[in-house]
């Protein structure tokens, strides 16, 4: 049977349609099955996300624009969608044992992750300001609920409220920026804005600043980072894991697309904004983490610093810079999921612990966990030949090629300062007297932890697949 031409034209939307319909089916299964259906919903959600990732990879390679340019599917979008879907699926797998132990086995968790991921896919492919806002809000509304998922916990409720209030503020700023841009260019599509924005203008730059402020909030870049430490610490650890992974990938993706697609004519103006944001994020991430005692708060500041490093590539404004951003986000996702697998394994008989001091002497009570955790921390610090070193190498190289020498030098110095607090944890694990041992690591966490640790150590042997795919994805934007 031949399909109508209208339906065939929606083929590039197949991953989003599949995820939306699948999410609704999961919601119905959970609503009718109640608590008993949680395991089934979890399993089906992971299969759905993996299947949609397969669909994204299977899509034809050429660039397609739907709905008068509102929705764009290109190699860049496909690359970032696969990272977002992988991060979400792994985050659900990692949460299974934790949620069961915390008495939080509720089917809403995987459903919210699925709908948040749908928002990410729309966001990554957004070709105008309206699609951008729709994707951003669908992603964010689910995240607000997830932050307060542990309703009986005061810290989780506080985290959810803080995130919601600050998120609403950032959405208002972003919308105000969008309205200014529309007012001064007369269009909402990125291609139309690029044509109208060639001559610049004060009003347009004001709109750009407000738009970037909203996006900085989503990637938790300074000066819109305030929510990150409190939400990371207060939210349940599986939710924090999800926050640190997929939403960051999607937000960086739209940051890149807006800057490169919509404002190529005024690159000199937005480069100045990004250089400041990148510098401030790297420096705050490096210095503010030194005094932290809670490992989730430390990872929050680490995440702020890493977003600063990723934005170095975008500040360069070149295809090599965007390639650096994509390589960085791919490696960042692996390092973050592995590190949070270790944090979620910090459990004793009485429950989970989050203090850095609880890791003391881990090399004697659990040498395997201590070794892989140390490797992930060294990688986060950017020590060669681990994957994290290559992530920073590509963004610094792009900055130097673009003539941003001061940014690259300060970035290297911020890396050196940041290495201090990672090395302090390694010193605790290997040289301090052992604390009480943790309970054995659950099988799923052990698998994620082991795979991410091995990928991190072995990346230098064969980096070509990630680097080449990132290069092709970056070129599709230019």
Q: Would you kindly provide a written description of the structure presented here, covering whatever features stand out?
A:
The chain is mainly alpha-helical and 478 residues long. It has 2 domains: 13-262, no CATH class; 265-478, no CATH class. It has helices spanning 5-8, 14-33, 38-58, 75-101, 108-124, 129-147, 154-185, 190-196, 202-218, 227-234, 237-244, 246-262, 267-288, 295-316, 319-344, 362-365, 367-381, 387-401, 405-431, 443-458, 464-475, and strands spanning 64-66, 71-73, 347-348, 351-352. The strands form 2 sheets. A two-stranded antiparallel sheet has the order 1-2. Strands 3-4 form a two-stranded antiparallel ribbon. It is globular and about 65 Å long. The two termini are 39 Å apart.
The outline comes out as globular
How many domains? The number is 2
Strand order of the largest sheet: 1-2
Mean pLDDT: 89
Task: Give the total of beta strands.
Answer: 4
Alpha plus pi helix count = 21
What's the gyration radius in Å? 21 Å
N- to C-terminal distance: 39 Å
Series of H and E elements: HHHEEHHHHHHHHHHHHEEHHHHHH
Structural class: mainly alpha
Strand content: under 5%
Largest sheet entry: 2 strands, antiparallel
- Low-pLDDT stretches are none
Helical content (DSSP H or I, runs of 4+): over 70%
């Amino acid at each position: 049977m031949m399909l109508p031409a209208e339906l065939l034209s929606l083929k590039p939307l197949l991953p989003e349609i599949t995820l939306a319909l699948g999410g609704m089916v999961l919601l119905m299964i959970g609503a009718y099955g109640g608590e008993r259906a949680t395991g089934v919903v979890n399993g089906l959600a992971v299969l759905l996300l993996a299947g949609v990732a397969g669909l994204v990879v299977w899509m034809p390679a050429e660039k397609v624009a739907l709905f008068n340019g509102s929705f764009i599917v290109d190699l860049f979008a496909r690359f970032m969608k696969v990272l977002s879907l992988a991060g979400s699926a792994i985050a659900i797998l990692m949460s299974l044992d934790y949620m069961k132990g915390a008495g939080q086995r509720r089917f809403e968790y995987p459903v919210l992750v699925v709908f948040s991921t749908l928002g990410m896919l729309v966001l990554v492919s957004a070709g105008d300001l309206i699609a951008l806002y729709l994707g951003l809000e669908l992603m964010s509304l689910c995240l607000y609920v997830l932050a307060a998922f542990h309703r009986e916990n005061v810290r989780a409720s506080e985290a959810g409220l803080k995130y919601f209030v600050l998120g609403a503020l950032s959405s208002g700023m972003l919308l105000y920026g969008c309205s200014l841009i529309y007012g001064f260019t007369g269009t909402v599509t990125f291609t139309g804005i690029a044509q109208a924005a060639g001559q610049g203008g004060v009003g347009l730059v004001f709109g750009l600043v407000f738009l970037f402020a909203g996006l900085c909030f989503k990637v938790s870049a300074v000066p819109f980072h305030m929510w990150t430490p409190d939400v990371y610490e207060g939210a349940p650890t599986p939710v924090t894991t999800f926050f640190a992974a997929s939403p960051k990938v999607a937000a960086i993706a739209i940051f890149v697309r807006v800057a490169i697609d919509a404002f190529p004519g005024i690159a000199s103006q937005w480069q100045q904004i990004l250089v400041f944001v990148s510098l401030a994020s790297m420096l705050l991430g490096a210095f503010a983490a030194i005094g932290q005692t809670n490992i989730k708060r430390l990872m929050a500041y680490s995440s702020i610093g890493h977003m600063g490093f990723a934005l170095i590539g975008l500040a360069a404004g070149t295809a090599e810079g965007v390639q650096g951003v994509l390589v960085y986000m791919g490696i960042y996702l692996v390092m973050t999921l592995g590190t949070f697998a270790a944090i979620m394994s910090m459990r004793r008989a009485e429950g989970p612990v989050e203090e850095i001091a609880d890791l003391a002497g881990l090399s004697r009570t659990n040498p395997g966990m201590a070794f892989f955790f140390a490797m992930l921390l060294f990688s986060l610090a950017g020590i060669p030949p681990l994957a994290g070193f290559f992530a920073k190498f590509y963004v610094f190289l792009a900055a130097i090629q673009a003539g941003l020498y001061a940014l690259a030098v300060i970035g290297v110095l911020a890396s050196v300062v940041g290495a201090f607090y990672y090395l302090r944890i390694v010193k605790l694990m290997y040289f301090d007297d052992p604390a009480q041992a943790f309970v054995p690591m659950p099988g799923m966490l052990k698998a994620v932890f082991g795979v991410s640790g091995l990928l991190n150590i072995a990346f230098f042997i064969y980096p070509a697949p990630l680097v080449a795919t990132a290069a092709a994805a970056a070129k599709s934007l230019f």
